[in-house]
Amino acid sequence: MDQLATMGRVLTEAQRVVDHIEASQLDDPTPCTEWTVRDLLNHITGGADMFAIAASEGRVSDETHGRLMTGDNLGDDYRGAFRSACNRAMRAYEPPGTLDTIVVLPFGEMPAGVALDIAMFDVATHAWDLAKATGQSTALDPVLLDAAWALGPMVLTDEVRAMGIFGPRVEVDAEAPLQDRLAAFAGRTP
């Protein structure tokens, strides 16, 4: 499966999780200890828009990044807001050659394909966080889990862990289900 098709599967699975979040759960805690369910939804929705802007315009300004990462990206329809942001991101990466262009994000300059890999890992991990926080099964789509597992070592470096978004790796049995190994790799307790 190519990179864009894999991202489509990751976003579809994340949307399935988001669609099963009840409004009464928005203030619940998540495995991302600093964020509630709403905060985490806001993060991945703003992130999808950030990556869409990078792919379509070549860069994300600090001002836009700040607005997307600290503003309200959800409004009154968190499900629809996430769906719309994901659709914008997918459309931005679809034109031929986009994955090879260089984009500038607040955390560096890179090929758009690398940015897409970062987005896939982030969305996959946070889909697990949201499922866990809202009592849904964390046995997510195997395509999502395989993609995140393959991308993890490239995306989740010591420098990224030092930023505090992902904690230190948690030890789990090597035979644990992939979703538990992925969560542990991302610093979560399955």
Terminal-residue CA separation: 28 Å
One letter per element, helices H and strands E, the order comes to HHHHEEHHHH
Low-confidence stretches: none
Number of domains: 1
Shape: globular
Class from secondary-structure proportions: mainly alpha
CATH homologous superfamily heading = dinb family like domain
- Share in helix: 55-70%
CATH class: Mainly Alpha
Strand content: under 5%
| Main beta-sheet annotation | 2 strands, antiparallel
Count of helix runs: 8
Task: Tell me what you see in this structure.
There is one protein chain. The chain has helices spanning 3-19, 37-57, 62-70, 78-93, 112-133, 142-155, 158-162, 178-185; strands at residues 102-105, 108-111. The model has no long low-confidence stretch (mean pLDDT 94). The two termini are 28 Å apart. Helix content is 59%, strand content 4%. Strands 1-2 form a two-stranded antiparallel ribbon. The chain has one domain: dinb family like domain (Four Helix Bundle (Hemerythrin (Met), subunit A)). Strand 1 (102-105) and strand 2 (108-111) form a beta hairpin. The protein is built from eight helices and two strands, in the order ααααββαααα. It has 190 residues and is mainly alpha-helical.
